[in-house]
Structures are given as structure tokens and as C-alpha cells.
Amino acid sequence: PPGIRPPVAPAAGWFEWVFANPGDVSADNEPEFVVRVPEQNVPCEVVASVEQLDSRMLMTTTVRHPPAAILVKVYEHVEGRKYYSKDLVCRSNWLPLRDSMVAFTVRRGGEFRLVAEFPDQTSRVERMIFRCYTSRPGCIVTASAALMKHSLVMPVEPAKATRLTLVGCTREDRLDRTDAPEKLDEEHDCLRKPEFDMPPGWKDLKEEFRQDCSVM
């Protein structure tokens, strides 16, 4: 019947695109990626990651240089060459980690632009890999350096895609700053240790109580 979309048979497996940059990447040549999903191939799940070289591979001392904090944002194309919805489809975490990942589900066919942003002009990455996976065939994925600024506008219709994970969903009131990367908790950024579950002793409680109290 008119207005009713026939069911789409699920595709077997995922479809992969890989782009590699052998040079330096910084705020001067921030990469952008465009994912186009045809109308007849929805719903379609899209998973993408921006990956840096693992700094442990280049270690010559016991000091490991932290990776750059790269933020990946996903925008939905609205019209023209440079107009995109001001409402983000999703975003990655903004942490000094090797990988920045986003995932979203496309409900209606369209174009989506993924932008990778650096925290400042001094951040630089030696080599970069972009991976994109789609659950439906027929999609087109392209990569390029950012050549122009894009305009964000108020959308006039419901969003064509929704976020697929809770990655990047940190509440703003829990962030020290919304315009800077989050700090990585090095102590707990590891496999769970037995001491994480041990109840504190009297000495620890006394020290914590002393720190929380103040003399009036």
C-alpha cells in the first residue's frame, strides 16, 4: 500500500572502508569523511573510528607520550553544498586515547559528514587511519581534508539518523569544561584490580574525613 515501506532483508555481514594518511595530521588539515546512505537501503547501522598510531610502538624509554585528544562529530546534511543540521547526530568521547569512535543508525537515506577536530593548533598526529563499517550495501564513503567551513542551520524535518551508543553522552554539568578534552583517569584506566573492591580502613576514612572538614 502507498506510504508503507516493504521490509528490508538484513544483509549478511558488514561492509568496510579504510583510509590511511601516512603524513602528519593537525588542525591545519583536519580530516572529514562523508557517508552517503541510499534511501532503499535503510535502516542502516554505521560504525566509524579515527585511529592514531599506537605510541607504545615507538617507545625507546619508559615514558609513553599520550595520544592527541581527537573529537569526532557527525552532522546530517540538509541542503546545498555546505548546510548541515545544527543538531548533532552523535559524537565521540573527547579523551586522549588512540581511537575516537562514533556509531549511528540511519532511518532515512541521506548524507552524513564526520569531522575530526583537534583541541588546539599545537596538537599533531603522525599517521592516521579511518575505518567505517555499514550494515547495508550500496553506501558510499569518501575522505578528504577540510577545505571550507560548513554552515549549521535549524532543521525543518525530523532527523534521519539517531545515535547507536552512549559514547560521547557525558552530561555537560559533569564536565570541567565543554570546550576542552576530558582528563583521562590514568589510575583506573586499566583492568579491574582487587584493591578497587577493598573496603577502606579506619586510617583511610580518617584521612578522608580530615580533608572534607574545615575550621570555621
Multimeric status of the protein: single chain
- Dominant shape: globular
Low-confidence stretches: none
Mean pLDDT: 85
Order of helices and strands: EEEEEEEEEEEEH
User: Could you give a short account of the major beta sheet?
Assistant: 7 strands, mixed
Q: Gap between N and C termini, in Å? A: 76 Å
> Helix proportion of residues, in percent?
under 10%
Q: State the helix count.
A: 1
Strand content: 35-45%
Q: How many distinct beta strands? A: 12
Please compute the radius of gyration using only Cα atoms: 22 Å
Helix/strand-derived category reads mainly beta
Which key phrases capture this entry?
single chain, 216 residues, mainly beta, five-stranded antiparallel β-sheet, 1 helix, 12 strands, 5% helix, 38% strand, globular
How do you describe this structure in short?
The chain has 216 residues and is mainly beta. It has one helix at residues 202-212, and strands at residues 15-26, 31-37, 44-52, 71-79, 83-85, 90-91, 99-106, 110-117, 124-134, 140-145, 151-153, 161-163.
